[in-house]
Amino acid sequence: MNTDSTHIGRRRAQTQIDFVIAAGLLVLVIGAAIGAMLPLGGVTTDTTGGSAAADQIVADRIAAWLIDLLGTTTDGPGGPPVLHVASEPGTLSPVCSVAFFTADKRLAAGAGCPFTDVKVHRLVDSGGLRLAVHELDDQPAVEQAITLGVETNRGRITGRLDRSTAGSSVTHSVDSPLTGSAVSSRVVSIDGRAYILTVWVW
User: Fold this and answer.
1) Buried (b) or exposed (e) across 80-102, using 16+ Cβ within 10 A?
2) Tens digits of residue pLDDT in 27-41
3) 8-18 b/e with 16+ CB inside 10 Å = b?
4) Within this chain, do residues 17 and 57 fall inside the same structural domain, yes or no?
5) What's the whole-model pTM score?
């Protein structure tokens, strides 16, 4: 009698496993059928052609990355990243800002910036990119980049805090509204003065 009850118990366990597997397969088949029937045009994102949503995500990420990049430096060769000054978030290094926007590798290396060469065209898959620091009262869609001077061991170096991908001026002139662009702006501080960092992606 014990043998019969053990045999029946094993058959019940096998039936439960079969049920779970069958139910799981049924859910997968129904899910696949529904997924095949749904139109995908509204949910796909063109990461190369630059849909508006994708461009906005890229602009936001570049703005956040640039604040992190220009707000830190290395503590000597191979040292860990440290703040240039004991600052609040959004405080940019004047020297590293000038080095980045003017693409001055020598200035970046001499100041201990966490970069020596950043090719801005690599920040976007295709299309255009413009980065600028401008006054607080400027309209976000109008580029009026500030000019900043810093003292170095090479003397005073001045640079306009405006940088763009090669050929972007063909599509958008330097001092005109960048219409049709995704725009991301952040308030930043340089030498104790507030500015706006704006990133345009199109």
Assistant:
1) eeeebeeeeeebbbbbbbbbbbb
2) 888 877 776 666 444
3) eeeeeeeeeee
4) no
5) 0.64
Query: Could you tell me if 24 and 107 lie in one domain?
Result: no
Helix (H, G, I), strand (E, B) or coil at 149: strand
Q: How many domains does the chain fold into?
A: 2
Axis crossing angle, helix 52-70 with helix 94-101, rounded to the nearest 10: 130
Which residue is listed with tokens 């139910």? 23
- Same domain, yes or no, for 134 and 84? yes
Q: In a 10 Å sphere around its CB, with 0-12 CB exposed, 13-18 middle and 19+ buried, how is residue 104 labelled?
A: buried
State whether residue 192 is helix, strand or coil. coil
The alpha carbon of 25 is separated from its chain's Cα centroid by a whole number of angstroms, namely: 40
| Residue 43 domain flag | no
Closest among 70, 71, 84, 94 to 193, alpha carbons compared? 94
